[in-house]
């Protein structure tokens, strides 16, 4: 299975969790990794839609990896979805290029996972917060996998981060 990871993190140089996951993913077989801000900076007009669509067409599994930004996607990833998942290509009249592909979200949060529950400070689950992204994937005919969460990134120990990376690579292999 060919997997493409589309990672967005505007503060990647300061990241511990996403940087470790992204670097670990590079070692997985049949995995292509793409860091949007590294490729395009923060200028959404530079996104090469045709090239990105070609890359996604050749994948069996598409992974969006990102830190939660105010309970959603970072700006470059949102722009990527808006531009690349175009009508007539991803959905609509003869637009089914993503149909049947596996879709995976790998998200990190600075706050502990327990806070993303009805009883927690956020009072919503990761599934609820990321429902628009999952709905987008479903609308495009993709098979949606369970969200992979790396919670508590701000206070994660090196061992916690290594454990997340090991689980992430195992997920990518399956």
From TrEMBL:
Q: List the InterPro entries.
A: Flavodoxin_fold, Flavoprotein-like_sf, KefG/KefF
| Keyword Oxidoreductase among record annotations | yes
A Pfam family: Flavodoxin_2
Alphabetically sorted, this entry's keywords are:
Oxidoreductase
Domain (Flavodoxin-like fold): give its ranges.
1-170
Task: Kindly indicate whether the keyword Oxidoreductase belongs to this entry.
Answer: yes
A GO MF annotation of the entry reads:
FMN binding
SUPFAM superfamilies the record matches: Flavoproteins
Q: Which domain of life is it from?
A: Bacteria
UniProt name for this protein = General stress protein
């Amino acid at each position: 299975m060919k997997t493409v990871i589309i990672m967005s993190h505007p503060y990647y140089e300061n990241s511990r969790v996403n940087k470790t996951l992204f670097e670990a993913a590079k070692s997985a077989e049949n995995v292509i990794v793409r860091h949007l801000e590294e490729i395009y900076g923060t200028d959404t007009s530079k996104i090469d839609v045709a090239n990105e669509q070609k890359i996604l067409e050749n994948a069996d599994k598409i992974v969006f990896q990102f830190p939660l930004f105010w309970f959603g996607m970072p700006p470059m990833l949102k722009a990527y979805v808006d531009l690349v998942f175009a009508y007539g290509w991803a959905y609509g009249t003869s637009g089914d290029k993503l149909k049947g592909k596996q879709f995976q979200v790998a998200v990190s949060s600075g706050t502990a996972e327990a806070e993303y529950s009805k009883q927690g400070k956020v009072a919503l689950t990761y599934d609820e917060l990321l429902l628009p992204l999952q709905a987008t994937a479903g609308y495009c005919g993709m098979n949606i996998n369970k969200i992979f969460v790396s919670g508590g990134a701000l206070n994660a120990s090196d061992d916690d981060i290594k454990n997340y990376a090991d689980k992430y690579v195992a997920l990518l292999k399956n």
